[in-house]
Amino acid sequence: VLYWSGGDIVGVDIFLNRAQEHLRDASVDGWLLYDYRGMNPIFMDAIGDIENVTRPCWLWIPSVGEPTLLVSYVDQGRFEHLGIPRTLFVSRNDMITRLVEVIAGARCVAMEYSANATLPRVSKVDGGTIELMRGLGVDVVSSADTIQFATQQWTAQQFDSHLIAARKLSEIVLEAFAYIGDQIS
Fold this sequence. Notes:
Blueprint: E1 2-5, E2 8-11, H1 12-25, E3 30-35, H2 41-47, E4 57-62, E5 68-72, E6 86-89, H3 92-102, E7 108-111, H4 127-135, E8 139-142, H5 144-151, H6 156-184
Parallel strand pairs: 3-7, 5-6, 7-8
Antiparallel strand pairs: 1-2, 3-4, 4-5
Helix pairs in contact: 1-5
């Protein structure tokens, strides 16, 4: 699986390491990505497009440790190629039991949620799922900063290019106003 990162394509290890680094820095226990029938494109961006998933699926990225996929027994084969350990469930009740096991000990979890819909682009998880998590004793925070940090870092070359472009644009603006000033007087 490859991830878009500021113009570069990076592998799953870099993506996960960046996400975990940000989670630790932000004192967040983990990032829980959730999807049901394609409603969360951020989930699919993280693992790649997987067709015909018929049940809810979760990707737990703890701030420290190995990520885990929580997927239905019915859909398990669709996730094999990812190389991420899978925990399987067979019913809704079993899914909740396994979810509690997967996130054991987590109290603060990032999800695709935006308080007061401040960033609607990030709000991909439905209210009922947020209620479920809160009912499990979890404080849900927005994953917006984690998404940004994990997927949108510039390389040194990209940053240098940005600085060069900024300097040139500043020069152009000054020259344009100088020209305008000369034409007016």
